[in-house]
Amino acid sequence: MAALPGSSSAATATTTSSARFRRSLRPPPSQLPFTRARFSIKATCPFFSDNNNPLPQSVVVSKPSPLELFKTSAADRYTKEKSCIICIGLNIHTAPVEMREKLAISEDRWSQVIKDLCDFNHVEEAAVLSTCNRMEIYFVALSQSRGVKEVTDWMSKVSGISIPELREHQVLLYNADATHHLFEVAAGLDSLVLGEGQILAQVKQVVKAGEGVPGFGRIIGGLFKKAISVGKRVRTETNISTGSVSVSSAAVELALMKLPDSSFADAEVLVVGPGKMGKLVIKHLAAKGCRRMVVVNRSEEKVNAIQQELKDVEIVFRPISEMMACAAEADVIFTSTASELPLFSVENVQKLPLAKHGRKRLFVDISIPRNVEPGVSDLETALVYNVDDLKEVVAANKEDRLQKAAEAGEIITEELKKFEAWKDSLGTTTTIKKYRAYAERIRASEMEKCLSKMGNDVSKEHKDAIYALSMSIVNKLLQGPMQHLRCDSNNHNSLNEVLENMRALNRMYDLETDVSLIEEKIRVKIERAKK
């Protein structure tokens, strides 16, 4: 093509090459929702012709597609945005339980919710983390603002909570902040009980629920698998989950320390009052290896319900009228009732026989008001601990965990850099495809020129040989750059080097000017929505 008047041939060549490059990456016309129109431009127009190469009398011009118009309109900011990771939801730090329970999603619905979210035009991948303390959605959005709007609207619809109220209480984090938050969640740093282990199991369940679900894609899947790895590493390297940080767990831990051999295996255990705190004591006892205990209560229903949860533990119910008889047989007694009067007075404890092997009977009283009369601690046959004694244990453990949390923060920062580098390295796949396509266009064009100069007498064998030669040259020229665009995901230095190479290649060959991939993703979403 000849240069336009007033332009240099170099500028024209660059423009032509760039235009060809963009056209080659554009989706095929048959896949775009528009029709073509024809109109004529006279060759006598001086701007569109020169004396050497007059244009034909009519030129076929493509009508811009809706996506191309969209790209050049005021909404251009959406197609030029890069895909981003977003965390949006409610948790125990930002929203009351009344709101969280309206948005709670049972585990058996997680897979369907992923599919529902990914049906939105600007949501590419998604995952749901719904527990008693949080309901958070992690997703990859083609457009940050539109993705947030779509997911917020969905949350309002399924919960019945107004959008202004949701926005007042929601967590909303982007990219590295969203990733950092999930890593903290998996490590137990965002839990009420610092370092608790149940949340890591729940994060693992997200990955299990997402297996085989199309919307649980490479980025979100990689994010949650990395979070699991971070959670494990934090617990292994800092031991943040060791040490009791709740009154109920501290009560059990203290009792265990006072028993011979630090074991409940040979101890007779009595729990008085299976209310909220008492139930937690029972669960901690089971977790620490206690396989049989007697539980005293006014009614049997609560005890039976706990027995259903802990089927591998023998839980024996006794009515409140038999409390002193049960105490006479017990080595360790936990009390946790709302009684305003002491259940164990100095007088009735004095009447109890010695505990097994003549040891002092251990009372762990976590009730307010106290269930064990203060004077009992003066008896030679009893050893009494109350909530204030346990608070010292809890406070000491909390201080220790806070120190370990600081160590965990350093691990999370390190792992965050690795994940961000891995996520960025995914762009090398696109760069490799673009670079190959760029080289292939040059090869095909030069081969066509060569064959046209050789005339029509070129045999098929010669054409095949020329084709093989051109392919061999291109492949050998591409080999070096391609090797430097592939990396070991476990090697952080390798990732950084690959990203530098990718950016350099994109700059040198203008590979990142194309937005056709975003166009194509949005087009697919639009087509899906029409069906």
Automatic annotation (TrEMBL):
It catalyses: (S)-4-amino-5-oxopentanoate + tRNA(Glu) + NADP(+) = L-glutamyl-tRNA(Glu) + NADPH + H(+). Residues 407-511 form the Tetrapyrrole biosynthesis glutamyl-tRNA reductase dimerisation domain. Residues 7-19 have a biased composition (Low complexity). The keyword NADP applies. Coiled coil: none annotated. GO terms for biological process: chlorophyll biosynthetic process; heme biosynthetic process. One of its GO terms (molecular function) is NADP binding. It comes from the Eukaryota. Pathway: Porphyrin-containing compound metabolism; protoporphyrin-IX biosynthesis; 5-aminolevulinate from L-glutamyl-tRNA(Glu): step 1/2. Belongs to the glutamyl-tRNA reductase family. PANTHER family: GLUTAMYL-TRNA REDUCTASE (PTHR43120:SF4), GLUTAMYL-TRNA REDUCTASE 1, CHLOROPLASTIC (PTHR43120). This is Glutamyl-tRNA reductase. It comes from Phaseolus coccineus.
